[in-house]
Amino acid sequence: MALESYISLAVYFVAMLGIGLFAYKQSTSDISGYILGGRQVSPQVTALSAGASDMSGWMLMGLPGAMFVAGFDALYIAIGLVLGALANYFLVAPKLRVYTEVADDSLTVPEFFAKRFGQASASVRMVSAAIIVLFFTLYTSAGLVAGGKLFESAFSLNYQLGLIITLAVVVSYTLLGGFLAVSMTDFVQGCIMFVALVLVPIVAFTEFESAAQMSASAFESIPSLSASWQSVTLVGLISSLAWGLGYFGQPHIIVRFMAIRSVSDVGTARNIGMSWMLVTIIGALATGFVGIAYANQFGLAVDDPETIFILFSEILFHPLISGFLMAAILAAIMSTISSQLLVSASSLTEDIYRVVSKKTLTEAKTVAIGRYGVAGVALVALLLAWDASNTILSLVSNAWAGFGAAFGPLVLACLYHRQLTHSAALAGIVSGAATVLFWIYAPVLENGETLSSVIYEIVPGFIVSAVTIAVVTIFSEAPDERVQAKFRETNQVLADLS
């Protein structure tokens, strides 16, 4: 790659570290500022931060790669995600913003689960924190795989060295600036991703004489949309659309709703966030589709479908622009890794260490422990990502399902079910996570196949968790009046605002 491309990347790295340093001076003197930005994040930053941390490297690598391999079958995943994100803004964002403040100013998702039942040290807090650390370590490793592939493909560097470079930069600004740094860098990264996913498919399309020529070339390898629809099975369609269910339980996304400066800003954040998501997800699918056509028409060798965006960046653009597009991939990767590291560290600090030790810690000490947590989770994720044969989409899908099933039904129940009990919440988390893990890893089918080869694991996991919560609630003693009063207070605040 040319010198100009390296200059573009260097500028990007310096900018991210500069934002981290700025945030370090602004909001890391206390734990609320470090892990939630003091609940003063603007709707614009909330929207792009939620989107960028959600989409990650799979948006520029995993989804175009899926489109390249599976054709229009990847479209159903995109539809499920858009519907799920929209539902999340309507069903979860407003109530969660109010309820987490009413519930004794809960700073983390596990803390909210516990204080929702009037028990700051409830067992549901420890269990949910452990699940967050488990699945986010896996999720973070998926982002590192994307970073390693980027440096290997675009810069001809060793895959493992690419992992280390990616992790070093993102850990640096996350350690420095906490939530504010993560949110501000996510905003910048979201803007970069937006431009890149509009630019790349349009420029690639101009290499063809017409849309008809491009489509004809693509359909040499994949079926048309109508043919794809006719061949899709009900189970396959459910598996793809069910990705949308995961949104309700993703801690790194819903924590953005907790941090927005006021519930009245949620509508603005929703409009910005959904507009950004529609454009970028269409751009990602278009990149994969045009990539198929380009490979067939011009004989482009694509060894790894998940690198089609990288190949376009190298062959179609001036080196300076190529560097910018490489930065877009890093932006997608780093925005998610930083969010996941911070949420994991927050759970380790606030929900495990503080509860287990029962020590009275100074704010400075608590922030320091949070930084140790960031480093620890990052190191384990690095070890998991060390194997270059890992695929981004498979790692993401497993972690996404784990969170969606373990937390999704519970988040909705916490916000909408006044009679929800602590025992039901705990049972829902455990049953959902256990079902997903069984579905992924238990070789119960012929030839050692797992049940995830039949239907996406979030479907049974979500159903089992929801049913468990409902059944256990029926047979549990109703929560006390103080807990129910906070539920009514939340609804009243929202009613007054509307």
TrEMBL record:
<feature type="transmembrane region" description="Helical">
    <location>
        <begin position="74"/>
        <end position="92"/>
    </location>
</feature>
<dbReference type="GO" id="GO:0005298">
    <property type="term" value="F:proline:sodium symporter activity"/>
</dbReference>
<feature type="transmembrane region" description="Helical">
    <location>
        <begin position="454"/>
        <end position="476"/>
    </location>
</feature>
<dbReference type="InterPro" id="IPR018212">
    <property type="entry name" value="Na/solute_symporter_CS"/>
</dbReference>
<keyword id="KW-1003">Cell membrane</keyword>
<feature type="transmembrane region" description="Helical">
    <location>
        <begin position="126"/>
        <end position="147"/>
    </location>
</feature>
<feature type="transmembrane region" description="Helical">
    <location>
        <begin position="228"/>
        <end position="248"/>
    </location>
</feature>
<dbReference type="InterPro" id="IPR001734">
    <property type="entry name" value="Na/solute_symporter"/>
</dbReference>
<feature type="transmembrane region" description="Helical">
    <location>
        <begin position="159"/>
        <end position="180"/>
    </location>
</feature>
<keyword id="KW-0472">Membrane</keyword>
<keyword id="KW-0739">Sodium transport</keyword>
<comment type="similarity">
    <text>Belongs to the sodium:solute symporter (SSF) (TC 2.A.21) family.</text>
</comment>
<dbReference type="InterPro" id="IPR050277">
    <property type="entry name" value="Sodium:Solute_Symporter"/>
</dbReference>
<dbReference type="GO" id="GO:0005886">
    <property type="term" value="C:plasma membrane"/>
</dbReference>
<dbReference type="Pfam" id="PF00474">
    <property type="entry name" value="SSF"/>
</dbReference>
<dbReference type="GO" id="GO:0031402">
    <property type="term" value="F:sodium ion binding"/>
</dbReference>
<feature type="transmembrane region" description="Helical">
    <location>
        <begin position="187"/>
        <end position="208"/>
    </location>
</feature>
<feature type="transmembrane region" description="Helical">
    <location>
        <begin position="392"/>
        <end position="416"/>
    </location>
</feature>
<keyword id="KW-0997">Cell inner membrane</keyword>
<feature type="transmembrane region" description="Helical">
    <location>
        <begin position="368"/>
        <end position="386"/>
    </location>
</feature>
<feature type="transmembrane region" description="Helical">
    <location>
        <begin position="6"/>
        <end position="24"/>
    </location>
</feature>
<keyword id="KW-0915">Sodium</keyword>
<feature type="transmembrane region" description="Helical">
    <location>
        <begin position="423"/>
        <end position="442"/>
    </location>
</feature>
<feature type="transmembrane region" description="Helical">
    <location>
        <begin position="315"/>
        <end position="337"/>
    </location>
</feature>
<dbReference type="GO" id="GO:0015824">
    <property type="term" value="P:proline transport"/>
</dbReference>
<keyword id="KW-0813">Transport</keyword>
<dbReference type="GO" id="GO:0015193">
    <property type="term" value="F:L-proline transmembrane transporter activity"/>
</dbReference>
<protein>
    <recommendedName>
        <fullName>Sodium/proline symporter</fullName>
    </recommendedName>
</protein>
<feature type="transmembrane region" description="Helical">
    <location>
        <begin position="276"/>
        <end position="295"/>
    </location>
</feature>
<keyword id="KW-0406">Ion transport</keyword>
<keyword id="KW-1133">Transmembrane helix</keyword>
<dbReference type="InterPro" id="IPR038377">
    <property type="entry name" value="Na/Glc_symporter_sf"/>
</dbReference>
<keyword id="KW-0029">Amino-acid transport</keyword>
<comment type="function">
    <text>Catalyzes the sodium-dependent uptake of extracellular L-proline.</text>
</comment>
<keyword id="KW-0812">Transmembrane</keyword>
<keyword id="KW-0769">Symport</keyword>
<dbReference type="InterPro" id="IPR011851">
    <property type="entry name" value="Na/Pro_symporter"/>
</dbReference>
